[in-house]
Amino acid sequence: MRLITGGAYQGKLDFAIKNYNINTAEIANGESFNIADLSNIRCINNYHLLVKKLLENDENPISATSEIISENPDIIIIINEIGSGIIPLEKSERIWREQVGKVGCLLAEKADTVERITCGIAVRIKG
Amino acid sequence: MLILITGGSKNGKSSIAEKIITSYNSKRFYIATMIPFGEEAFEAIERHRKIRLNKHFETIEKYTDIQEIDIDNNSSVLLECIGNLCANEMFENKIEKPTDKILSGILKINSRAEVFVIVTNQVGEDGIEYPKDTMNYIKNIGEINKKISKKADCVIEAVYGIPIVLKGDRLLYQPKSIIQGELPPCLL
Prior knowledge:
The complex is a heterodimer of chains A (127) and B (188).
Chain A: E1 2-6, H1 12-19, E2 27-29, E3 43-45, H2 47-56, H3 61-71, E4 76-80, H4 91-110, E5 113-118, E6 121-126
Parallel strand pairs in A: 1-4, 1-5, 2-3, 3-4
Antiparallel strand pairs in A: 5-6
Helix pairs in contact in A: 2-4, 3-4
Chain B: E1 2-7, H1 13-21, E2 28-32, H2 39-52, E3 57-61, E4 76-80, H3 82-91, H4 99-112, E5 115-119, H5 132-151, E6 154-159, E7 162-167, H6 170-173, H7 176-179
Parallel strand pairs in B: 1-5, 1-6, 2-3, 2-4, 4-5
Antiparallel strand pairs in B: 6-7
Helix pairs in contact in B: 3-5, 4-5
């Protein structure tokens, strides 16, 4: 499993496509991802939005993430960094922001490589 | 030895800080700055207490005025966190710009500690324009972080549990247990 992270619009998806030779058909979007499609894809983009969707459906993002990694151990996951701002006033946004942090820690721990993209430049921070 | 740890919410800052502190054998002090108010504050305090359990910390609850804290010479000190401390100085103590006050308190503690680990926060990266007080808070945190960082022997940014050493000797301060840890630091 590989993890790619960084802020919004820093070139994470482009990096993944070029560096790991992924076809766009092999990429799922976290917003609309269905776990049944897991075997047909190589990459989940916007994983932070999948966390939001899982929370909205009262599912546990940590256990869902463990399941995804064990079902597809070669998956490439792209997740934004969203926790470096002011604590949101809205409770559901606070929970989402914190769950994205915890899920990101789990992904980074399980990943063989972690790359952080800033202004299109990738820095390998693990592996 | 002054070590600053920064990073986003739930990115494993506390776990990295505690791993560093517990690698020292001197007397351990924990400076808690969060005012226990509201359900979520209690939950956060409980969660951090559980993590510290059995690590032999003496807890000092000090929400403002950390320059008044008295610690033993050559002890290990962990302060969490600059975000709370700065908010308390600004909104409880009504000090508009507490940056120099907080820094001098930090330097006083550091002059007596064997190791002093400070957890801070990254708060200015969501691109949202907030009301004046909040923008001032973001500015103060940024300034305190820069001031501490200048004095620090080591500065670490936690990115989803991975410690990135921004300043200091990587081999000396990056505990092997973090790199090879079985669980992500924030879940320990």
